[in-house]
Amino acid sequence: MNHLAPHEFLAAVAGPLGWFYALTAGANVIAAGRSVTASRSKAAAWMTIGLLFAGAAVLSFSGRPPMMPEVVKATVDAALGPITITLGSIALLTVLFLRREFFVRPAVAWVGLNLTLALLGLSLSDQQFTQIVSQGDNVPIVGMVFLLGFFTWLAARRAVENDRRSAEGQPPTEKELSDTVLVWPDLVYIELICMVLVTAGLIAWSMLIQAPLEEPANPVVTPNPAKAPWYFLGLQEMLVFFDASIAGVTLPVLIILGLAAIPYLDVNPRGNGYYTIAERKFAYIVFQFGFLQLWIFLILIGTFLRGPGWAFFGLYEVRDPHKVEALSNITLSRAVWDVWLGVGMPRVDPASGWLHQVATIALRECEGLVLLAVYFLGFPILLARKWLAAYRSAMGPTRYWILALLLLMMFMLPIKMLLRWSTGLSFLVSIPEYFFNF
Q1: How many CB atoms are located within 10 Å of the residue 180 CB?
Q2: d(CA 126, CA 175)
Q3: Do residue 289 and residue 408 come from a single domain?
Q4: Whole-number Å distance between alpha carbons of 34 and 31
Q5: How confident is the model at residue 149 (pLDDT cuts 50, 70, 90)?
Q6: Residue range 308-330: average pLDDT?
Q7: Are residues 109 and 85 in the same domain?
Q8: Which residues of 142-166 are buried (b: 16+ CB within 10 A; e: fewer)?
Q9: How far apart are CA 1 and CA 127, in angstroms?
Q10: 121 and 68 in contact (C-beta within 8 Å)?
Q11: Would you state the pLDDT for residue 182?
């Protein structure tokens, strides 16, 4: 769909959009039929939504699909700045956690799904948006977003239900599951059916969607942007805020070791074998923040918002390779000595002795070193005396310090992201003489 005239583009997407709206309308009609005996008001609401989607399907099949107003697209693009989207995503996760009893209701979730599908349908009438999401390697990511949302909602719903039962003195729903089946033939038979269906789906997928293959690699021609596979986009995004040795080696190692250390660090015996949030709030918040905010969020940024030159682009903004972003990246030591004090940074004399060089570097980077010491050493002590005193006494000093350092390293990522985007601060400590930048 590259470089199509507006009428040619609408003619190309009108049919697929018609089927999209028709399937969505059918899903709402089915939901209305299933709800008519339990709640006539819900059935009427789902039927009304289904009729609206059916009308959109008729318009699409006639070649005039509903289109998102230009003012809305401009507003969305303006709101998708790096700072606003990062803070907005954190605020959204906070609201979803605090109001989880409301959002896990099936009716609320169904309304949210319909709003998301309506937004997706309207966005697909924009050529730039369609060009992004219809790429062969981006289509599964769009599908995984919906799957991730569904399974996250399902787990939260079961956890909220168990928390409600616990408050009423009842056991979790998992404790009441007494029916057992044999691995053979029951489980193996189901797995065989699933394997056949998945294989058939992959074959159909490969026939309908063109593989994202490009021309043979050319060492003198670099793609712009050069993006890693989707599962490495989070690490590629980290390279913007950390040195390559940290983002490419240290952080992945800490992630793997941190995940492996969770069973040995967690001393809370509750919540084993059943869904719960109230009994494991700390673990739930840490995992959701680390997985959704610091991993899935970075993948979505790299997939849909990063364009040529690794610059930020809105969902409906044309990916102009000539776009230039005014960046003023500066290290903390340069900001202090050159900008704030105006006396110039201390310079390392190569002819001086090793101790003199180290002393000069320590003087030059003293602000960042002090900040890191306060963050990684002082902050855990404060947490142990205030908010995490119970965890400190239950875990013991060794496990507590390992947990605290892992958590502080995790939270350092959004801190550095906001510092880079708001103040242009690249590194808190920059010691190129010894290949260390943090």
Answers
A1: 6
A2: 50
A3: no
A4: 5
A5: very high
A6: 82
A7: yes
A8: eeebeeeeeeebeebbbbbbbbebb
A9: 8
A10: no
A11: 82
Residue 180 sits in the same domain as residue 307: yes
The whole-angstrom separation of Cα 117 and Cα 123 is: 10
What predicted TM-score, i.e. pTM, was given to this entire model? 0.89
pLDDT value at residue 110: 95
Overall average pLDDT of the 257-268 stretch? 79
Q: What total of structural domains would you count in the chain?
A: 3
Helix (H, G, I), strand (E, B) or coil at 5: coil
Chain segment 66-102, per-residue pLDDT in tens: 999 999 999 999 888 899 999 999 999 999 999 999 9
Question: What integer pLDDT is reported at residue 101 of this predicted model?
Answer: 94
Closest-CA residue to 16 (of 120, 101, 96, 111): 120
Residue 89 contacts residue 288 (beta carbons within 8 Å): no
DSSP string covering 226-240, please?
-PPPGGGHHHHHHTT
The per-residue pLDDT for range 202-239, each reduced to its tens digit, is 899 888 887 777 778 788 888 888 888 888 888 899 98
Q: Give 431's strand partners.
A: 436
Kindly provide the residue ranges of all beta strands, DSSP E only, lying in 146-266, ordered along the sequence. none
Is residue 261 domain-resident? no
Domain containing 192: what range?
A: 78-211+274-325
* Per-residue pLDDT band at 248 (split at 50, 70, 90): confident
List phi, psi (to 5°) of 54.
Answer: -65, -40
Does residue 234 lie within any of the structural domains? no
Q: Would you call 98 exposed, middle or buried from its count of C-beta atoms within 10 A (0-12, 13-18, 19+)?
A: exposed
DSSP secondary structure code for residue 403 in this structure: H
172's tokens: 């979790």
**Is residue 326's pLDDT more than 70?**
no
Task: Tell me the per-residue pLDDT of 357-378, one tens digit each, with 9 for 90 and over.
Answer: 899 999 999 999 999 999 999 9
Please indicate, yes or no, if residue 51 is contained in any of the structural domains.
yes
- Is the predicted pLDDT of residue 320 greater than 90, yes or no? no
Q: Is there a single domain that holds both residue 365 and residue 342?
A: yes
436-437 and 430-431 as β-strands: parallel, antiparallel, unpaired?
A: antiparallel
End residue of a domain, out of 18, 42, 66: 66
* 31 lies in the same domain as 85: no
Secondary structure of residue 425 in the 3-state scheme = strand
Radius of gyration of the chain (CA): 26
Residue 249 lies in a domain: no
90 and 164 housed in the same domain: yes
Q: Report residue 225 as tokens.
A: 């942007």
Cα angle at 160 between 159 and 164, to 5 degrees?
A: 115
**Same domain membership, residue 157 and residue 292:** yes
